[in-house]
Each structure stands twice: as structure tokens, then as C-alpha cells.
Amino acid sequence: MVREILRNLRRGTLPQLRRFVVVGSIAAGVQLVLLWMFVDKAGLNYLLGALIAIEITILFQYTLNNAWTFRATRNATRSDYLTGLLKTNVVRGTAIPIQLGILYVLVNSGDILYLVANAVAIAISGVYRFVLDSRWTWG
Question: 29: how many CB neighbours lie within 10 A of its CB?
Fold first, then answer.
């Protein structure tokens, strides 16, 4: 029984988690570049810049996750794709306060550079996003 559980974990959840982390890492890089541009180049407040960068990367991540991470259960029809996009926006939308809260606390309490704090916030909120996306968006 334990062997079967481990085999299913290795074949199902772990490969998805690895792909989710790869996609998330790429998207995190994109998000950090966007955040830097919004804050340092456009002069936006770091929280507003983070919110905009998050929204842009939601679309990017959904496309990559749908095509690669969750390809076995991908949303292939136009209707399924749009429904999945709505679901991932709900999941990721509920993760935004988590990410922005962590970002705020780290920047204002820990005197941590906003880009580093955002990277930490992305990692922490990523666990939440994976669990909900894997079970609801592509479940």
C-alpha cells in the first residue's frame, strides 16, 4: 500500500509540482523585471507595481501551466480554456493579498529590498497556488 502511494505520488503529483515550479520560476523572473520597471522606471509605489506585475503574470502562467504542467488534464476547448482562466484568476486573485501582505511586512518590518521581499512572497504564496490550481483549475 505504501509502495503504491509513493508510486502514484512519483507519477502524478511530483512531476506536476516540478513543472509548476519551473513555470513559476520563469514567471517570477518576469514578475520581478516588471516590478522593477514599474517601481524604478515608472515611479509607482512598490505595492501597486507588484499588483500590476502579478496580474500580467497570471495570464502568462496560466498559458504555460495549461500547455505543460497540467497537459494531461489541460483545458483544450475554448470554453474549458476560458473557464480555467477564470478559475486560475480566482485562485491567484485570492493569493494576491497573501503575496502583497508578505511583501509589505518584509519591506516595512525587515528592511528588506522590495525585489527580494517579493521573491520570498512569490515562493510562499506559490504553495497555496499549487494546491488550489492542481485541485480546482485543472482537477
Answer: 13
Q: Which sign, positive or negative, has the C-alpha torsion 133, 31, 14, 69?
A: positive
What are the pLDDT digits (tens) for 70-83? Answer: 888 899 999 999 99
Kindly report the pTM of this predicted structure: 0.81
Residues 6+ apart with CB under 8 A from 120: 102, 106, 112
Classify 76 as helix, strand or coil: coil
How far is residue 31's CA from residue 123's CA, in Å, rounded to a whole number? 12
Considering only CA atoms, which of 58, 74, 53, 48 is closest in space to residue 24? 58
The residues, any chain, with a CB within 8 Å of residue 32's CB and separated by 6 or more, are 53, 115, 118, 119
C-alpha neighbours within 13 Å on the C-beta side of residue 128: 15
- Per-residue pLDDT of 24-41, as tens digits, reads 999 999 999 999 999 999
Q: Which residues of 96-112 are buried (b: 16+ CB within 10 A; e: fewer)?
A: eeebbebbbebbeeeeb
Burial class (CB in 10 A: 0-12, 13-18, 19+), 118: buried
Do the beta carbons of residue 99 and residue 50 sit within 8 Å? yes
